[in-house]
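Section 5: illustrative case.
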């Protein structure tokens, strides 16, 4: 059975592209059946179109979080996903949304480190002052409204190298993100195949 993936993204969509390419290449037994973005001008819209993936823009437009997530859930539900993949999605999802879908999230930091926004910038600064020796990337389940703290599916360190600038460090993080997200998506689908429809413990 080919699994149905829905990707939520707010930015350029390079990670969505990595997943779509892995599906096309048979690396994942899955298909990206839709992309949803909260930003009508996000680069992911054009990128998804290049892969032939339907895109739906669902801007906040001043709606409350509860109302917005209700609209978002309706949009996602219509695509009948087996798994929702957050790939640069810049909003915290409410419990009411998360109860309806199995959701994984990509975050550019190691488990327990630098949750929330600007994780790459903060980890780079910590590497420079010697607080840590590496940044990282992880993909985790999203069982609740906690920020970047769900059960980890896969993670990988991104060591700081002498002479790194923020730009070179960030480029290395992004290059690892693509492969890690593809691998973790496959692992997540395997876990779901071996458990009930809720997030595995």
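Designed sequence:
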């Amino acid at each position: 059975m080919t699994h149905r993936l829905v990707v939520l993204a707010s930015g350029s969509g390079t990670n969505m592209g990595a997943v779509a390419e892995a599906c096309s290449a048979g690396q994942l037994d899955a298909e990206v059946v839709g992309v949803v973005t909260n930003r009508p001008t996000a680069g992911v819209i054009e990128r998804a179109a290049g892969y032939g993936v339907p895109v739906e823009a669902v801007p906040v437009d001043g709606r409350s979080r509860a109302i917005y997530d209700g609209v978002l859930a309706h949009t996602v539900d219509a695509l009948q996903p087996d798994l929702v993949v957050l790939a640069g999605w810049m909003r915290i999802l409410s419990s009411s949304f998360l109860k309806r879908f199995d959701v994984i999230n990509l975050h550019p930091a190691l488990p327990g480190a630098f949750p929330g926004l600007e994780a790459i910038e903060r980890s780079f600064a910590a590497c420079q002052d010697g607080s840590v020796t590496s940044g990282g990337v992880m993909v985790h389940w999203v069982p609740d409204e906690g920020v970047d703290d769900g059960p980890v599916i896969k993670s990988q360190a991104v060591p700081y190298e002498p002479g790194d600038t923020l730009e070179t460090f960030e480029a290395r993080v992004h290059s690892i993100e693509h492969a890690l997200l593809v691998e973790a998506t496959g692992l997540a689908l395997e876990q779901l195949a071996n458990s009930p429809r809720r997030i595995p413990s």
